[in-house]
UniProtKB/TrEMBL annotation:
<dbReference type="Pfam" id="PF01381">
    <property type="entry name" value="HTH_3"/>
</dbReference>
<dbReference type="GO" id="GO:0003677">
    <property type="term" value="F:DNA binding"/>
</dbReference>
<dbReference type="InterPro" id="IPR010982">
    <property type="entry name" value="Lambda_DNA-bd_dom_sf"/>
</dbReference>
<dbReference type="GO" id="GO:0005829">
    <property type="term" value="C:cytosol"/>
</dbReference>
<protein>
    <submittedName>
        <fullName>XRE family transcriptional regulator</fullName>
    </submittedName>
</protein>
<dbReference type="GO" id="GO:0003700">
    <property type="term" value="F:DNA-binding transcription factor activity"/>
</dbReference>
<keyword id="KW-0238">DNA-binding</keyword>
<feature type="domain" description="HTH cro/C1-type">
    <location>
        <begin position="11"/>
        <end position="66"/>
    </location>
</feature>
<dbReference type="InterPro" id="IPR050807">
    <property type="entry name" value="TransReg_Diox_bact_type"/>
</dbReference>
<dbReference type="InterPro" id="IPR001387">
    <property type="entry name" value="Cro/C1-type_HTH"/>
</dbReference>
Length: 403
């Protein structure tokens, strides 16, 4: 069910650029030639993410290239998404070169306050505001690290890079996202908090998942979880959050790879930790607890096309325990399940809830476009909310075409 819309012309162009027939691409991708043909002709507007990942592999292209993932962020101030990318991949950061930064070091407490504000923008889906702050924040962290040493600035620097990685993956800059995530891991490793470091590995796992690199993503999540597996007598809540977050990553990856039994095993382990914790927490900007487990269980059942189980899991989700865009993403899963159950009006209301949380976030979501397409096919006359969501998705596709 995790799908994408309007890829037909792009698929046809990529296939012909690579000199392949539909049959050759289908053979290389281990999908049916019928699927390739229907997508290219527009007879089918959507496909499972697992199928799209196979097709992208068959084309030897990143998944983001196939689905047309791109920057749709409206700039706030002078700095935009490209400025963040340039800050992440600044040649001055290469070994043996001096960054040649001007300016005085910043109080580490002030850097941390800036990181907290930046996370507020990210989880509210205000990507333009986030992009406007990150280049300066990264520069301040670098200057302060040079002046005070890595220890005092390790946490702030790691999370600034983590935010850059998240912004890059949302805007179709996969390689820059991986680079930012790796830089964040190195920064976190200069600190003394092994659980913070584990959550940075979690971001890398999430990026690999978004790129369709399922086996690598799952292996990293499992290995990281095993490295910090808690002793049940210790009950360190931060350790539980970091460990449980990795298991939830593994569950989602297994679900995306259509290995639903393995996904349920990961979820069962995570649920045991969440039950031990008893409540949802946000440590290192990672959510973990009963609601987080239920939310990811709904996500896994969405991938398995089991709408009844999605809605059953959703009953255990407390919106107050989630960051705004996390609840928005869960709402899309719920809307998709309702649409599959033919509760179309309720599905539109739930999808609109996701849209209202952050229209900017919404138009960057492949799955949002899929849900909107499915809902519009159910209606002969579109209600205002559905027209509004469809317009946002259409504007996003137009922006892709112009780039």
């Amino acid at each position: 069910m995790d799908e994408i819309t309007s890829i037909g012309p792009r698929l046809r162009r990529l296939r012909t650029d690579h000199g392949m027939t539909q049959t050759e691409l289908a053979d290389r991708s281990s999908v049916s030639v019928e699927l390739i043909s229907k997508l290219e002709r527009g007879a089918r507007q959507t496909a499972k993410l697992s199928s799209l990942t196979k097709i992208a592999r068959g084309l030897d292209e990143d998944l983001s290239v196939l689905v047309g993932k791109s920057n749709r962020v409206k700039r706030v101030g002078e700095a935009g998404v490209l400025a963040v990318r340039d800050a992440v991949s600044d040649p001055a950061l290469l070994p043996g070169l001096d960054a040649d930064d001007d300016g005085e070091p910043t109080d580490p407490a002030d850097l941390w306050a800036q990181v907290e504000r930046a996370y507020g923008a990210y989880f509210a889906g205000h990507f333009g505001a986030l992009a406007s702050t990150l280049p300066h924040l990264l520069s301040e962290c670098r200057i302060t690290r040079a002046a005070l040493g890595p220890g005092p600035v390790a946490a702030a620097y790691a999370h600034a890079y983590q935010l850059a990685a998240c912004l890059m993956i949302h805007t179709g800059k996969d390689d820059a996202s991986l680079l930012a995530s790796e830089r964040g891991i190195h920064a976190a490793a200069e600190g003394e908090d092994e659980f913070r470091l584990a959550t940075l590995y979690g971001t890398y796992t999430w990026i690999l998942l978004r790129m369709g690199r399922h086996s690598q993503a799952e292996a990293l999540a499992v290995r990281t979880a095993e490295s910090i597996e808690p002793s049940w007598s210790t009950r360190n809540p931060r350790q539980l959050t970091a460990w449980g977050g990795q298991l939830l990553h593994a569950a989602v990856v297994a679900g995306a790879a259509e290995r639903h039994d393995d996904a349920q095993q990961y979820l069962a382990q995570a649920k045991a930790g969440a039950d031990l914790m008893g409540e949802d927490r946000h440590d290192y900007w990672v959510s973990f607890g009963p609601t987080s487990v239920a939310m990811q269980e709904a996500h896994v059942w969405t991938a398995a096309d089991q709408p009844t189980r999605v809605l059953q899991a959703s009953e255990r989700v407390d919106p107050r325990a989630l960051f705004p865009i996390s609840y928005a993403r869960h709402s899309l899963n719920e809307a998709a399940a309702l649409e599959r159950r033919r509760n179309v009006d309720e599905a539109i209301a739930v999808a609109d809830r996701a849209f209202q949380i952050s229209p900017e976030w919404f138009r960057h979501q492949r799955f949002a476009g899929s849900v909107v397409t499915d809902l519009t096919s159910r209606k002969t006359q579109l209600p205002a909310a559905l027209r509004r969501m469809a317009q946002a998705c259409t504007e996003g596709q137009g922006m892709q075409a112009n780039e």
